[in-house]
Every structure is written in structure tokens, then in C-alpha cells.
Amino acid sequence: MKIDARVSDEALWLWTAAAMLAAACGPTPSEAPGDPVAALTAAVQADITPEGLSEQVDSIVQYERLSGSPGENAAIDHIVRELEREGVAVTVDTFMAWVSDPISARVQVVGTDFAPEAITVSGSASVEGLEEMVVDLGSAEDLPPFLALTGEDLVLAEEGPAGSSARTDRPDVRGRIALVTGTPGPDEVAKLSLLGAAGAVFVTTEERLIDMTTTTVWGSPSLRDYRRIPALPVAEVRKSDGDRIRSMLGSGQVRIRVSAETRTGWKPLRLAVARIPGPTPDAPYILLGGHLDAWYHGGTDNGGANVAMLEVARAFHRQKNLMRRGLVVAWWPGHSNGRYAGSTWFVDHHFDELRRHALAYVNFEGLGQMGAKRFSASTTASLAALARAVVKEGVGDSIRTGYPGRSSDESFHGVGLPLLEIDHSRLNEDGGYWWWHTPDDTRDKVDPEVLKTDTDLYAAAISRLVAAPNFPVDVAATVERLGSILEERQQAAGARFDLSEPLARQRALLAVVREVESSLPAEGDLTVDLARIAILRPLHRVLYTQLGPYHQDPASPQGSLPGLNAVEILASEDPGSDRYRFAETTLLREEARLLEALDQATAAAERLRDRLRTR
Question: Range of 42's domain?
Fold first, then answer.
């Protein structure tokens, strides 16, 4: 097992050697005839066929790929063989990660023979024969929200510090087993734990049991967040069985006996990473990633995406003479049972390299769904225009882009990398993504023609990212996005908190950025690419993180510019309450962080503006 830096050093050496060989043996992008972006897009798309994709899907989806399992390792070995056959430099790191594998669950209504089929979930505590009264809490959507800003800790809004008014109409679940309709996700389990439940039985909204992950810890725990490792036993039953338990509750109190078993702790995982260099050893690169592990055979989650990544890596390697920038492609382990353990490990072990050389992160998720009709994208503001253009040119659809949530291996906000993920999904009226996280996500759910469409869209986006003379990132859009959120926060705060200074500095930064963007050299410059990303890094860190560059935020949705979410408390609390003053103190500190980020971005923008003026 390799857990030191030797493998990473070897990977970097191989990448550098390959780059030197490419520079010596092939033409540089500036020497390539015609439009390198159009030529690269056409060549890569022509190289990837539905037949080739389908063959590779068969090779991956034949395995059940719970992370760390023999099936996942077999899939890794297949990917590595395919890459090495093509001459692509690839390494495999082995490391220890904290994972939780669900084993079994049993639910029985005490005093009856009713024992519905049940499963447990990743992150559940193990328990044998927990017997308590049942309390029906209704829908998971009705659970109390978290406090607006909580940092490393999760605090319920109604259970916060003095001065707040807790709800009194909710059934008391302390020491009882909660019955809740919905999926057992991290937020739901954390809320039930904070409410004092002894255990939980989740009732699905349909007649399918859905494998889920319940921890709010992002990646392997550290000393800062290990306290949030879940300690609540969780089981899941089907809707009809949950309805039957509720009908029993209508006749009086019900006791339930719950057993759950998970295998939780440190486990060796393997991470395959391919490197396709740019024309020079120090050329910046784009990071592509998608999780390799799956619940069961994972045809569309995430087998189709894994194959698209493989075919993209091979096709771009064949056309590397048209690339100005490199590609790094990673098949993440530990996405589900390790809550993004693979991508987080990569950040932890390559942070300095990513900070110095990476320009963006492109995430592959859920490709090739049969019957998919709706296109969309999840992206930082800086790559939203690129996503819209690629989909419009590729399939003719005008799409709306959503901003990052807190999912899908989005482990790179602390590094400050722009994010792009293109989505192609089924409509609800067609049944939606009903097989997600179930044994039904089998090979037949992957449509090779849909997968070809999805892969072509990614190929078009990546071609722009690696071959356009100027890196196609919209720095001004990020500054504008920051300004619009600041205005929303100011409106929410009213006269109770003044954000005029951050708004003034945001406007000044926007003016400088617009000067920079209007002065970019037509022929492009890789050092300018890196300098533009340097403007974005501090802004991304305040827009998409609370805990800053080096520590991962909880795996809980927090919105953009989460440090200022506490304005909601000012708007709703009495100014004399403890909570109001706690929120005010939080906002003062977050404003200082925001002002520093704006100053850092402005200084980087001014340096680049002055440099471009002297060209």
C-alpha cells in the first residue's frame, strides 16, 4: 500500500517526461493549421462512437462497484489497461479512507409478526435490537431547518441559543424511534440526531428502497469534524410498509424493534489518474473527474460517465498536438460510502499543484440515461456562458445554469477552481430517474446514443478549455454574481447591517476586471490564463465555502456566499436576543473575510491589467 508522496512524484515525473516528448515530436497549437478548437472538437467527437462507448460500458457495468470492493478494483484495472494500451500516462494511488458499507437491517413491530423488508444506509450506526416507541414526524421536509450559519457545527434553528422561540407543536422524539417519510440523507439524519431521536425508520415515497449516505462529514474525518460522524441507527422501508405502521399508530402507541449493521472505519481505496500533458512541461491543465464507485452495477450512476471519461482521455491524447493546456482525468473512489473521500484525498495531497497549475474542474455525473430529454448545467458563474454555448451549439437547446450546491465531488472550491457539470436527465412525466441508487440501475438503462450526445457535449466544452487561445472563463460574471448576492443580503439585512463597503469594493473590482477582459491578447498566453484564475480564487472561496481553502465544509447545502447567510437571523430576531448578537458577531467576521478576498482579487486584477497595458 502506498500512502506517501512517491506515487504522486512518479506521476508528475511521467507527466513532465510525456510533455517534453510531445513538445519535441509534434507541432504546437500555434503551428497547427486552421482553428484548433474546431479541429480538436471535430477530431475528438469523430473518434468517439456509440459502438465504442457501448462496448466499454459492458466492461465497466458488469461489476458491482461499492468502493474498495473487488468489483471496483476490477473496473480500475480495466481502465488502466485501456489507457496504457493507448500510451496514456496513468498511475494508481492506494490510500486509507473512512468509509461506511451498509450490511443489513431489520424492522419489526413489537407484538406482531409484521417485519417488512428493510435496508440500512451508509453512515448508520450499528445496533442490535433497539426497541422503543415510534413517533411519527411526517415528512422529512417538515423537519426544522439548520441555523443560517453554523460553520463546522450543525445547529437547528429552533434549538439555537437563548432568545429564539422553539416550536412546541412538534412531537417529542427524544429517546424514541422517529418515523419519517423521505430519503435518509445527511441533513435529515443530522436533524433527527439533534432532536434527540434514538433511531430512525425512513419511509420511501415509492415502492423502492434507495441506498443513501447519511454523514455530513465531507471526505475522511479530521480532528475538526469527526464529531459529526453519525451515531444514529437508521433503517429504511417501502411506502406501503410505512403506511401500515402509520395505520397501527392510529390505533394507539406502537413499539418497533430495529437492528442495523454497517461496516464503518478505515479502508484502502484506489484512485486511477491519467495525465495528458500540454505542449510544455509547465503548461496549466484542466481536471476532469467522476466517481467510479456505485451502488450495485451503477449503469448510469456512474458507469456511463466513467466510460465517457475513458474515451475522452484516449481521444484527446490522440490529438494532443492541438492542445494548449493539459488534461488530468481522475476516477474517484469513495463517492458514496466515503462521502467524496477520493476527490477530497486528491485535494489534500495535491493542493499546491492544483493551486499553481489547475484552471478548472469538470465533473462527469449521470451520463447516458435512457429517455433523457432535459439539458441543464451546474456551474460556477465563470463557466456558465461556456455551458450555455456548448449545449446551444451541440443540441440546439437554450438552458438555464444552476450554481454549485454541495454534492457530486465538488471538493475543489477551497482551491478556487471554476466548476462545470453538464446534465442530461429524464422528465418527471416520463418516470424521472426512478432507478437511481437502486439495484435497477443496470446496463439496459444506458442508451449508447444518449451517451454519445452527452460525451460530445463534454468533448466540445473540453476542447474550448484546452485549445482556445484565451482560457474561456468569464471572470466578470463571477464578480457580477458576487455583487448581486451582496445586494440581496443587504436587502435582507435592511438597516441592521451595512454592506456598503463590500459593495463599493465589488464595483471597483468589476471595473478593473472589465479592463482586463477587454485587453486579452488575441494570440493567448498561458501565464495570463493562470493570472485570471488567480483573480477568481479568493472570490470562489467566499462564494462557495465557509471554512476556507483547506478544510471541507459540511456536506449540507449552504447556497452562495454562505458566510453572510446570518443576515436572515438579523431580519427575524429581536436585537436584544443572544442569537441576534451571535449573528451580528458572525457577520462582522465574515465581512472582514469578504473584504480581504475582494482586496486580493483586486490586487491580482490590477497587476494583470498593468501587465497587459505594457504589451
Answer: 6-97+268-467
